[in-house]
Design brief:
disordered C terminus, 259 residues, binds zinc ion
Length: 259
């Protein structure tokens, strides 16, 4: 499997028809690439050749602090063409350094740092500038940067279609390492902006079922029950039929942080 298994084809994207194992396949890609990063940096650690920045990345990949995101992409780019395929991205640049064939680069530094817009003209979107970390270099942001550039390279821009995103976000709290299917607030805004290009955004939930981006995703206003589109998505993605709310406690605690 390669990271940029996304190619330009003729024809317009159809409404999404997900296969029952799509979320499973995307999760496998996330796990394979995480294991690959741990193995490659782990080998350097054993050999005593690991750099200090790689050691930090290895620590995060083993515990929390690194997100892998994979997506099934079927988006229009105008002129009767579409991008179609799957791609994986990682919030750590070390993953691309170690496996350029396994994960996407995810755009230029100008795009990642919010100096250059991404998506389509209608979206009018730039990532937030770096503050502690670089939100435009998160996993889901990198997937969006990548398809922006693939569309540009083919002489078009993003228009219509769908994207099914499986997020594997791991983070540490005092009580341990947690896992969430949620994009952070920044990536949520970026994925919401992609809907302005006519792209339907879907997420894989903890039961590996596709769930659509909530309506009015660009609003932060709580409704009568105090819920926002972001908190509603959290409830729907991180709750499993068998175990109830598995991860929401941690995700909610962290939901105001840009991670
Ligand atoms: Zn993010």
């Amino acid at each position: 499997m390669t990271a940029t298994a996304v190619s330009v084809k003729t024809g317009s994207p159809k409404p999404p028809e997900f296969e029952s194992n799509d979320c499973d396949e995307l999760q496998k890609r996330n796990e394979e690439q995480r294991e690959d990063l741990k193995k490659k940096l782990g080998d350097k650690e054993k050999a005593g050749t690991i750099r200090a920045d790689e050691q930090v990345a290895l620590q995060k990949a083993r515990g929390g602090g690194t997100t892998f995101s994979s997506a099934k992409i079927n988006v229009g780019i105008g002129a009767g063409k579409q991008l179609s395929g799957v791609a994986t991205a990682c919030s750590s640049g070390k993953a691309f350094e170690q496996s350029p064939g396994g994960v996407v680069q995810g755009g230029s530094y100008a795009q990642q740092s919010g100096d250059e817009s991404v998506l389509c003209d209608k979206a009018d979107f730039k990532h937030a500038p770096p503050a502690g970390d670089t939100p435009g270099a998160h996993g889901e942001a990198k997937l969006l940067n990548e398809i922006t550039n693939l569309a540009k390279k083919a002489g078009g821009q993003l228009a219509g279609g769908s994207m099914l995103v499986n997020v594997d976000w791991r983070y540490d709290l005092k009580s341990g390492t947690y896992q969430s299917k949620m994009p952070c607030r920044h990536c949520f805004r970026a994925l919401c902006a992609a809907t302005r290009c006519g792209i339907e955004i879907w997420f894989c939930d903890a039961d590996k079922e596709p769930k659509k981006m909530p309506a009015n995703c660009d609003s932060d206003k709580p409704d009568a029950s105090g819920e926002t589109p972001y908190s509603r998505l959290n409830e729907s993605l991180d709750k499993t039929k068998a175990q109830g709310v598995r991860y929401s406690q941690g995700a909610r605690q962290l939901s105001s942080a840009v991670l």
